[in-house]
Amino acid sequence: MPKIGVLALQGDVREHVSALVALGADVVEVRTPQDLAGIDGLVLPGGESTTMSLLLESSGLFEPIAERLAEGMAAFGTCAGMILLAGEVLDGRPDQRFFGVVDITVRRNAFGRQVDSFEAALDVEGVAAGPVDAVFIRAPFVERAGDDVDVLATVDGHPVLCRQGNVLVAAFHPELSQDLRIHDLFVGGL
Ligand code: GLN
Fold first, then answer.
1. Region 149-171: what's the mean pLDDT?
2. Domain 3-188's class?
3. Cα distance from N-terminal residue to C-terminal residue, the chain
4. How would you list the strands of the sheet with 86-90, edge to edge?
5. Cα(178)–Cα(75) distance, integer angstroms
6. Protein residue whose Cα sits closest to atom 9 of ligand 1
7. Are strands 102-107 and 74-78 parallel, antiparallel or unpaired?
8. What average pLDDT does the chain have?
């Protein structure tokens, strides 16, 4: 079974842990650099990317995670987690840090504010058995995706699920629906 870390500084950590446990993964919550030892992949949850950026610095986790990602560790980011893995962030805070391992430009809160949160039935490339119920909460979308990025799903023409190598990013929250198929896309690839 793959050992998967869930970045547990802020955001919907518990929901990701439940989904990963349901898929049979060995899960560890990551709060300190030591917690990264031996993990095959890291999940970066939804929450608030600017807050997570600050907590990544104060916990001393930013550099060790950046190193593991540079060495090829797999990662799965949802919503704020997608922002943290992107190469370029629009409408971010000027001091906000991100890992830059997926060649995408994301715009924060691109679908609007909290009141503009919505659910959509998404057709996802590589996911069989019908559309995926996707929850969007102050979600980003992808304004530009590089040539090495596979776009797996879109909303109104905007990419919302992308993969580059072993890094998967979703603008929505698969951890908030009971559907495990997006987590399985990640876990199944490890
Ligand atoms: N808008 C948030 C951010 O910029 C992300 C929202 C979410 O993760 N639900 O981090």
1. 97
2. alpha beta
3. 9
4. 86-90, 102-107, 141-145
5. 21
6. 137
7. unpaired
8. 96
